[in-house]
Amino acid sequence: MRVFLWILKEAGCKNVPSFDYFKRLQTQIRAESGIPSIPCKSTLGNVFFINDPRAIIAQDWSNPDVRKHIHVYPEIPEDGIIREIWHAEKWRKGMDLDCLSPMYAAGLTHYYVNEIAQLKDGTFVVPIRWVMFRSQVFADVYTVSFNEQNKATIEDSCTIYIRAGDLEKNLLDLQDENKVPQWSAQTASTAHPNQMPNPKRTLAKGRRLYHSFVDYFGDDVSGNRTKSWNKHWNAYMAHRNLPRRLLLQEFHVHFVSTSPNATITEQFQEFKNAVEATHEDPVEVDDDTCFCLYANAGPSDNPMQSEICGHIGGKGNRFCRKCNAGGTQAEKKTDEGYHALFEAGSPRSKHEILTELEKQVRLACAGAPNPVQLLQRSTGVKDAYTQRWIEQLILQFQELKSAEPDRSDAEIEAELIQWTLDNRDKIYSPFLTMKGFDPTKDTPVEILHTILLGVIKYVWHVSHSSWSPESKKLYSVRLQSTETSGLSIHAIRAKYIMQYAGSLIGRQFKTIVQTNTFHVRGIVTDHQFMAWKAAGELSALLWCPKFRNLEEYRKDLRVAVANMLDVVAMIDPSKIITKIKYHLLAHVEEDAVQFGPLVGVATEIFESFNAIFRYCSILSNHLAPSRDIVHQLGDQETLKHRLTGGRWFSKTENEWRAAGSGVREFLVAHPILQRLLGWAEPKNLKSGHVKLTPLKRRHGEVIRMTLALKDTVASKAINYGSYLAESSWQHCCMVVSEALDECGLESWVFSKSAVDETAVVAGKIATILKDVSGQALVVLEFFQVSAKRDDVYGMPVLTKRDSEMTYMIVPSSSIKFNFNAQHDCSAANCEATGERERMQERVASDDIETFIVHNPLDRYLINTHVFHNAHLLRATLPRDLVAPIPVFQDRRTKHDECAATFRVNKSARKKAKESESGGNKKTAGRKRKAPVPQADLEGEGDAAMEGVADASQPRRKRARTEHAPVAPSSTQATPPVPATSGGDGLTAGRSKRTITKSARLIEAEKMAQMSSESSSDDEPDDDDSDY
Fold this sequence. Notes:
Residues 899-1027 are annotated as: Disordered. The protein is of the alpha+beta class. It contains 39 helices and 33 strands.
């Protein structure tokens, strides 16, 4: 900032403030209308700051550009397509009704849930939920019936929908007119009359009252931009009442807090206090509206979500945070136990977790650490936050017992139990006591860490780790030759991916999972190839942005998950037990039903925001990092709000104000500022729009070529006769599809047929034309979709009709969407026979690279593993070409076979370890060797003995022995000293320190061997760094 002010002065600007004055002005603005930074101290004594979430969300409500996008009610989609979270089950059916927006405003008349109201036809109803349908507000209501005595009964066994516009009188109107009915004994005995009027009507004080929901993201992040680790716990949030397309923008990621000392749970306690304060004192915004805050979901990586759920983690016996799947190692090895891991177990709940934690705290009050550990292992409940208090209680019991030996254990236990009752809010995790938030259900499976950095990462490792250098080179060439049209991926850098195969990130795994099925055949095993097909099919379903038919989607997802798990079990049965991310696949269906498309709860945008945090972190002097970063990012929130036309309340002038029109217009006129703020305006694309080919310079003149239709490829079209041959046309390079895809030349597209508009045809864009009047045409090279899938890849096949090249002219507005198709190189026997100069620094170098030369076979495969337009592809193609097909019909039998294989392998490894351990002990302790059969000695001599000795040693020691100099043999062996009668069992000439060191080396080798058997050294662990 000093440099910036200096530049202004040097440029001759007037009234440039000094740096000190500028800082004072910043402080004044922050106090006047900025985001308040709240100093906090956790129950564990850690000090940190948070940005007030109430003020942050209030800015969304006070910003006209954002306010218009806020949804306050659940919505029933008219077309049945589930796009947003308010279309899904959580908002529509699963959420606590008290957490939903409680009122509907019909002008100045406010209707509240749980209050009796009268319709225009005179009937009485009690609304319990407001919903949107066809852009109108409807109410889910209980009807009211009257008996012979004219007493009213609320029929709360079922509900009906009514249009909110049909409501005529609310409770206050009925009270004024003395028309509130008398309740029957049946209704009087329920809670309904006591809820009238709704307590939130009093809180609203005549203002409109709505509820806003936030997603809370927590993670541990390095505050440095270098590789030096500087751990901070960061918390961000997103306003879930906004559409997903906005939440995927950096502008709508809101920083809450950070601390190098206070954990996420400690920070969430203060966040929870701020959120729950709105339940008693709603936040007021500028248009006589107020709102309350509630938590919606906790998207994070798996270790953090386990911590949020008070779960022991992925290495525990009960290793799932969402259900009670698992058991002891012995139980999981049985057929029943192994099979159970393929499905979701009995669901957990926060009430169950709190009950288990209360049991653990009570045992801790009795000074019993072992029973606490046994309970944690058996239930999988171990909350990191509560564990600190458990350890303190055990220590406190021991100290009290030591200080007062005469006191009975029962007295000390009673004293500690009373303390826990008095300090309940301190002891238990705020995640488990937050109203409307159940972490076991509201921590959805996160597709970045669980799928890309989990399942796909595991399959990638087991594939590439066994490749020879020739296979790696072949794969790299194949990957680089991928047809990328219709793939929403970054430019493929195959050489980089193969060179750093063990250090890839989510972006590269997105590329791999969408294309690998076409490239790994012949260099992986059959089961690994099946795994890639299953992974691609599953990923395409999980990245669907909308569900056209929920039941159909659930069925397909169920099959795809089953295929993925079954194939992985066939490759390595142990992974189902050791890798929690595989089991979590069993929960993706329920999460998709509850939250809608899982791309809406992905954490990629939060992970991207870490870069903003690091820029602020490195500017801090680290004496007060939490305060400095909170102030910096709070000021950024204020700046964004003002520049985009947001309103704020001026305390000095006691009125709502906004920046002048010049400020707002300046932002609109300069897109570079929008990008700096993370605000992305939607592209102004129109279906059917075309873009002319760039002008070309010929003989010093810039000209645009105009051709007669007969001189273009359109002359070969089957419907060429429908157009004037002499009409003039200009070439275009791009056309916008109905799905707003920018489709270039050679793009694969689906289009309405020129012959029958109700039919959809597939083809490749041959050329795009536009005449002077603005009419635009697209010439498609027509392909037909085969009725059967490809036998190898299981994907739809594109072929030319009668093996002939067929063209069709269609209007540009007929293009529906683009898709990705790959040449069937397997059937055409395409090989890497081409050579070309490698491009370096945008010029051709002397380095020669090979590439795939496609043989002349016009057979293409529709890539059904793509993320882009996956939902449109599934809706367009016949269902029998896209629906997942079970790999195994009798899954249970296969699971039992895998369990048996796992037990055999486990037993074999155990015997091998015991055998190796026995040999190691002989070597380490110089103990007397077991007698070797005389026949063997006589038959093989010294070579046999050397082989036995070498085989019993670990590989590392055998290698040392092979290169060690041979010592002269002694004619008399030195006997070991017996370890009895006070002896130490040391071999003569060998110290205890040497033997201890050898024993430690052997133990280390044993542990390394056990680790390598359960998972390769290069294979990532479940709790690895997923970033």
